[in-house]
Amino acid sequence: MEDVLRSLGYLCLGSRLKRIGEQLQADAQRLLDGLDVPLQSSQYTLLAALDRLGPLAVGELAQSLGVTQPGVTRSVSLLAELGLVEAIPSNDDQRRRMVTLTEAGQRLVDVAKRDVWPRIDKAVADLCQGLSGPLLDQLAAIEDGLAAAPLDRRVKEGAAQ
Amino acid sequence: MEDVLRSLGYLCLGSRLKRIGEQLQADAQRLLDGLDVPLQSSQYTLLAALDRLGPLAVGELAQSLGVTQPGVTRSVSLLAELGLVEAIPSNDDQRRRMVTLTEAGQRLVDVAKRDVWPRIDKAVADLCQGLSGPLLDQLAAIEDGLAAAPLDRRVKEGAAQ
DNA sequence: AGCCAAACCATAACATGTTATATAACAAGG
DNA sequence: CCTTGTTATATAACATGTTATGGTTTGGCT
């Protein structure tokens, strides 16, 4: 069956990027599921942002992640319910809610940073290794590569080396 | 404000591809809004698939678009309500529902194919023109390019030439 | 013939993105 | 100081992807 998104080239580049991104995330999800806290992979990017940049207001978080503010508000609420972050109104400006990693959140990040993120990073780097040339060709190579060996298999093989 | 997804490199490639894809689609949406039928850009890919490959069963459509079957089922229902496609149980096999462009659907595709899709294709090609090198660099260039001039502006400038 | 597994599609529940809009806190001018 | 505009966040409504599961229809095997 012809892959229409590939055939249409630039016209459907947006859909195609989204599709590849979703597959990468789904693959990464399987690797993250090993941790005891069940979180979606996109939540980890929020935690990573806090770990990297320190406490941030909701809007700043949105900006640093490149998503809209309502999306961050929702994710923060979810993570706060799980006890991984805290959102405390700022003293200077009561409109702002500063989002901070809790101790549990920091522990989770530390575990992920040590045990899981390097593997994902390595597996994706492996997937993209040796790519060159036009964007569409590189994307096709990624699609083919993922179809041939999903990320979790690349991690296992990498670990065996 | 630091762009965390960029900083994290391969680790967040999935999120980043999704983010770029969403922005491209949003930009393309503004160009499509000119047509009289208000459709989301992802629905157009479904119509494009039918135009390109002819009538398809729901499952085949899902496969050719690279999405899951429930997603296609929902989109088809929506497009059927708008009178752009028809989904008729096959005679040979009552399990299959063959999806076909209606006359109105074909007209819409023809208009899009003539007036809009070439512009989008051209604008995205323009955006990606001259890209080379590692994937992450090309993605950064796309992000910067979109920030500097969204697709609709590229179309206008292209048309003026 | 009759039964059982597989194939195809629909539906439900959820995740997570968006836009549009409401609310509350701040800031500045009359 | 009060109004008024702006800023920060929350909420609602929607779009569209996913997985899990259920219900028909087929088709093959005994």
Automatic annotation (TrEMBL), chains A, B:
It comes from the Bacteria. GO terms for molecular function: DNA-binding transcription factor activity. Residues 10-148 form the HTH marR-type domain. Transmembrane segments: none annotated. One of its GO terms (biological process) is response to stress. InterPro entries: HTH_MarR-typ, MarR/SlyA-like, WH-like_DNA-bd_sf, WH_DNA-bd_sf. Pfam families: MarR_2. PANTHER family: HTH-TYPE TRANSCRIPTIONAL REPRESSOR YETL, TRANSCRIPTIONAL REGULATOR, MARR FAMILY. This is Transcriptional regulator.
